[in-house]
Amino acid sequence: xxxxxxxxxxxxxxxxxxxxxxxxxxxxxxxxxxxxxxxxxxxxxxxxxxxxxxxxxxxxxxxxxxxxxxxxxxxxxxxxxxxxxxxxxxxxxxxxxxxxxxxxxxxxxxxxxxxxxxxxxxxxxxxxxxxxxxxxxxxxxxxxxxxxxxxxxxxxxxxxxxxxxxxxxxxxxxxxxxxxxxxxxxxxxxxxxxxxxxxxxxxxxxxxxx
Length: 210
Ligand SMILES: CC(C)(COP(=O)(O)OP(=O)(O)OC[C@H]1O[C@@H](n2cnc3c(N)ncnc32)[C@H](O)[C@@H]1OP(=O)(O)O)[C@@H](O)C(=O)NCCC(=O)NCCS
Description:
The protein is α/β, with parallel strands linked by helices and 210 residues long. The protein folds into two domains: 1-101, no CATH class; 124-210, Hexapeptide repeat proteins (UDP N-Acetylglucosamine Acyltransferase, domain 1, 3 Solenoid), CATH 2.160.10. The protein contains five helices and 15 strands. The strands form three sheets. The chain has a six-stranded mixed beta sheet, with no helix packed on it. A five-stranded parallel beta sheet has the order 1-4-7-10-13. A four-stranded parallel beta sheet has the order 2-5-8-11, with no helix packed on it. Helix 2 (26-38) runs antiparallel to helix 4 (65-81), helix 3 packs across helix 4 (65-81) and helix 4 (65-81) runs antiparallel to helix 5. The radius of gyration is 18 Å and the shape is globular. Coenzyme A binds next to strand 6, strand 14 and strand 15.
């Protein structure tokens, strides 16, 4: 009787998540991962997709621990969005154990995420756009209530920075090393300090080498 109830539970759970995430196919997962790999051919830059051949991809995976972490993250997210039980949690723990990266598997994160040094980095966003750069020991998460940052495209977040609460970081914004962002940062602005204040603007960056 119990197992019948459990089976029904998992069937309903899977149907619900599958309906919700129809677009998160294996192909979509692979696309996002190739975009991640494009950030590693020349570190932090965006390399044209045609340069990422299978051979290049395998070399990049062999050389770059962060890219291996992204591969696990994308696979975990695919499992999560398609209602596969247990695996997402196992992958999330693996990411923390092996790479020191605490990232919410299944979070809405666009392709081309570049995490230079994953150790000590915590990523729990509402969503992150495309081609963002996170350097090292960054925290993206809640402040004192259950609300998480929304981060646009091409955002750069320097080493040790904290982005906290239900704030919005606009496209192309830069958060300086060790800044604590607790207010919205407009598109293209540079914010530094604690709490982070805007000190400049008009940086619409597409990829960034560090
Ligand atoms: C935020 C950052 C991107 C700004 O770069 P930029 O647009 O070239 O800005 P500038 O260097 O001209 O600095 C503008 C002002 O902000 C200040 N500033 C820059 N970065 C700062 C930081 N992290 N914290 C506090 N103030 C900072 C500068 O002193 C300058 O102030 P001033 O005008 O009073 O002299 C850069 O300083 C930064 O923090 N990069 C992170 C790099 C990193 O994470 N490295 C780790 C590698 S492992």
